[in-house]
Write a structure and sequence with these properties.
Elements lengths: L1 H32 L5 E2 L4 E2 L8 H6 L1 H12 L4 H20 L4 E2 L14 E2 L3
């Protein structure tokens, strides 16, 4: 009985590890071999280019910071993930407010200050 349990546990453990590791390997391979975009049309900006290696930039920490920014800009299917993120954020922000009211806050303390009141149609 215990031998059968151990065998089932080993199979389950191997499948779990494979399901965890395979996406990491696949995304890493895609990232290594795909062509990096240079411009983001959605954000209207130039994407970070692959940093040049130097011992000085490695020791100072600039290489790792630049490589982190580069990878974040060139992640596989980045624009698709950003669209999904935008939809999720819009869903939760609308649920949090519960309405379409807009609150205007004027920090100048003048007579036009709305004092954080919601503007609604009467």
């Amino acid at each position: 009985m215990e031998k059968e349990y151990r065998m089932n546990f080993n199979i389950f453990a191997r499948i779990s590890v494979a399901l965890f590791v395979m996406p990491i390997i696949i995304i890493g391979a895609i990232s290594a071999f795909d062509k990096d975009q240079t411009v983001s049309k959605d954000e209207n900006r130039t994407l970070k280019q692959k940093p040049e290696f130097s011992v000085i930039s490695l020791v100072s920490g600039d290489l790792t910071k630049d490589f982190d920014e580069y990878y974040a800009d060139t992640f596989p299917n980045r624009s698709g993930f950003m669209k999904i993120n935008k939809k999720i954020n819009a869903f939760f922000s609308q649920r949090a407010t519960g309405s379409d009211n807009i609150v205007i806050i004027n920090r100048d303390n003048d007579e036009n200050d709305f004092k954080g009141e919601a503007l609604t149609e009467k």
